[in-house]
Amino acid sequence: MFTNQNKLKNWLLPVLFFVCSPALVSAQKKESPLYKNPKAPVADRVKDLLGRMTIEEKVGQLSTLLGWEMYEKKGAGVVASDKFKKAAAANQTGMLWATLRADPWTQKTLETGLDPYKSALATNALQKYIIEHTRLQIPVFIAEECPHGHMAIGTTVFPTSIGQSSTWDPMLIQSMAAAIAKEARLQGAHIGYGPVLDLAREPRWSRVEETYGEDQYLNSTMGVAMVKGFQGLNNMLNSGVNVISTLKHFTAYGAPEGGHNAGLINPGRRELLSSYLPPFEATVKAGALSIMAAYNSVDGIPCSASPYLLDTLLHKQWGFKGFSVSDLGSIDGLVMTQHVAADNTDAAVLAMNAGLDNDLGGQIFSGPLLEAVKAGRVSQQRIDEAVGRLLTQKFEMGLFENPYVDPKAAQKNARSTATVALAHKVAQESVILLKNESSALPLKKNLGSIAVIGPNADNIYNQLGDYTAPQDPKAIVTVLEGIRAKLPSAKVNYVKGCAIRDTADVHIAEAVAAAEQSDVAVVVLGGSSARDFKTEYISTGAATVSQATTGVSDMESGEGFDRQSLDLMGKQLELLQAIVKTGKPVVLVFIGGRPLNLNWPAQHVPAIVSAWYPGQEGGNAIADVLFGDYNPAGRLPISIPRSVGQLPVYYNYQNSSKHDYVEGPAAPLYSFGYGLSFSSFKYNDLKTEVSEAADLTLHVSVNVTNSSARDGDEVVQLYVRDDVSSVVTPVEQLKAFSRIHIKAGETKTVSFVLHQNDLSLLNQQFQKVVEAGSFTLRVGAGSQDIKLEKKININKNYKL
Predict the structure, then answer these.
(1) pLDDT at position 675
(2) Which of the following CATH numbers is that of domain 143-412: 3.40.50.150, 3.90.1200.10, 3.20.20.300, 3.40.190.150?
(3) Where do the CATH 3.40.50.1700 domains begin and end in the chain?
(4) Residues spanned by CATH 2.60.40.10 within the chain?
(5) Is residue 327 annotated as part of the catalytic site, yes or no?
């Protein structure tokens, strides 16, 4: 026995030495995979990770699930929900959407939702669970709605996009976008949905407020500003304060037939390429890394299943480096709405093979897509391409190394003093003075009394627009509160008077009495996109319209609330007419999400101010304008029609026989680019210089003088008309603009530089060219307020 033990010991010694040698132990350790090496090139990391993934794990990366269902509040903390755990176990979930969103659709309130600190706890909990309970530990993307502020509790609420574009100040909007991105990123978000680049050529459509208006150049400029603000200069995704920008909605979504949200649109190919696509091309070339396919079809091809849009144009022609995502349920719509797919598997095949990379909602790029891959109807190569695009951005953002955020930083930076001041600035610049007869504005601060009347005078959520989370009422300044702050010693007589839509609760007599007891009346009317818990919603989040006239919400705009007419709803006009009848000085303040009928006010009210949805600082900004503490210079980004019978009424229509109607003019009430100021400006000395070298360059300058006694901003606009062309072109087209501050009596020279693309058209062969001939340059303060014109000649043809 002793001998046998010695033999065993002698045999084990070399084995133990082999096992316990430090060098050999280290060699035996599992080598860290390449994709976890932060020093390795991103392309190599993506290739390595793809090679380790199962088809189920890959498809999991292509599904974006509804995020607000994925967390649970427990005491002072937040944990991953059972639903999230099941999604992670079934196939690692790659992305969540609207995790931090709160609104009536998600049923998240100020009480049940998350403040910024707990938002960071929630996203950390989700990342921690994924990393600790999945094989490959791929961090999850968190995508959030961010069009005019992160749609979450406790964040800064800026003016909606139609107000942002009314500033005509892209650098200000870039600063705003950077502030939105920082608030979202510090709470754990990685992707911000926005900007919305749809041309709003149909004001009956419910989502006008989300757009930058009717013009492709203004939309492009504002869109590029948003992308740079979101992603940082040169795409600083790993900064910890930037997010990926998702462009919406690709494409031609904003001019549906009849104004029906997600409805048909059938532009010609030239119009599609010349008008609807340039904002997307400009923002893609500015570095945007995500794009959303629209619900609609274009010429019979659904945008969610269009190889031309999603592959040929986006990747092959524009060089897009990011990933595409469906709108919520739009792949399902290939079956249910558009009837181009027989079932969900067919829909998965159509969308994936067309080039769509990600499914918002995750109903199709899940079981149906797996079935299609296993049946050989979608290639592994195409799956790897889509997954690779998403993984690339996760690596670029540094999520594998830094998946967590600091809750204290989120709490500290949300709605900071600086971002509130920025919201105030954007709101000020967005205010448009539409009428100021006999210098009715600014009002004097020594008023003894003032009546503040109307359904939007003191309504927090009517002021904020759609895609807004519940917010602390103390953070929102209404018009009534803004006026009270300006006039601490005056008697302020407030009466709501009526609702936006509800005709049951009307107090016009009380409003008239308040006006009669006051020196002046400010009447605040318009619309509302305020969602409430009485409104019903379809699966995409769009609201279901109620036909009732009593017991209804104010909501007459916002996703799903398309209009038949553009008249003020309810008893609003009757209220205004009664106040005007008192003979007291009246100022109308318009707050709303789309152009509405202002014909009667334009004839009978001395002063009209448009603020769209001005955000949380709207009341202060409007009061600043009313009492002269801010000199307005906002300009219309969309024309205001006289009647729905005029539609479409956008300014840059193609040369055609357009004439007046039997009932009235064809021209809009207020045209694109229009807006007044408390200052007056004169234009002179328009100069041009054409350089016809290899690259055509046009230098334009004009002197602008502030001829008033008051400092102010002027928005100088340059329009171009191609006088004779081989195809029909617009009567004029905005090509440059500049918002400048000019002191009283001062003259400034404003200079613009145009290039080949600015004078180009698509010829009959669909080639982009500049045709030799004459062009008319028109400079002024609006599309119908041209101060100076000059013709130039281009002596040779250019092919771009």
Answers:
(1) 98
(2) 3.20.20.300
(3) 431-638
(4) 681-799
(5) yes
Residue 167 phi/psi, 5-degree rounding, is -75, -25
CATH superfamily assigned to domain 431-638: Glycoside hydrolase family 3 C-terminal domain (3.40.50.1700)
Are 194 and 209 in contact by the 8 Å Cβ rule? The answer is: no
* Helix axis angle, 170-186 to 116-133, nearest 10°: 60
Domain ranges in the chain with CATH number 3.20.20.300: 143-412
CA distance 349 to 347: 5
* CATH code linked to domain 681-799: 2.60.40.10
Give pLDDT tens digits for 525-543: 999 999 875 555 565 666 6
Catalytic residue among 103, 169, 327, 502: 327
702 φ/ψ angles, rounded to the nearest 5 degrees: -150, 145
Count Cβ neighbours within 10 Å for each residue of 433-447 and write b for 16 or more, e otherwise. bbbbeeebbbbeeeb
| CB-based contact 394:36 (threshold 8 Å) | no
Amino acid at site 377? R
- Other C-beta atoms closer than 10 Å to the C-beta of 64 total 26
User: Which 8-state DSSP code applies to residue 313?
Assistant: I
Burial 495-514 (b: 16+ CB within 10 A, else e): bbbbbbbbeeebbbeebbeb
Pairwise CA distance, residues 200 & 610, whole Å: 18
Lowest mean pLDDT among 90-99, 278-287, 484-493: 90-99
User: Please, are residues 94 and 362 in contact by the beta-carbon 8 Å criterion?
Assistant: no
CA–CA distance, 550 with 534 (Å, rounded to integer): 13
Structure tokens at 398: 């540094």
Distance of alpha carbon 563 from alpha carbon 569, whole angstroms: 10
Find all residues with CB under 8 Å of 698, minimum gap 6, and list them: 688, 689, 690, 691, 753, 754, 755, 758, 759, 792
Residue 728: left (phi > 0), alpha (psi -120 to 50), or beta? beta
The phi and psi torsions of 622 (rounded to 5 degrees) equal -65, -45
**Please, how many CA atoms are within 13 Å of residue 644, restricted to the half-sphere of its CB?**
16
Taking each helix axis as running N to C, give the angle between helix 42-52 and helix 380-397, from 0 to 180 degrees, rounded to the nearest 10: 130
Measure the CA–CA gap between 334 and 342, rounded to whole angstroms: 8
Q: What is the pLDDT of residue 535?
A: 59
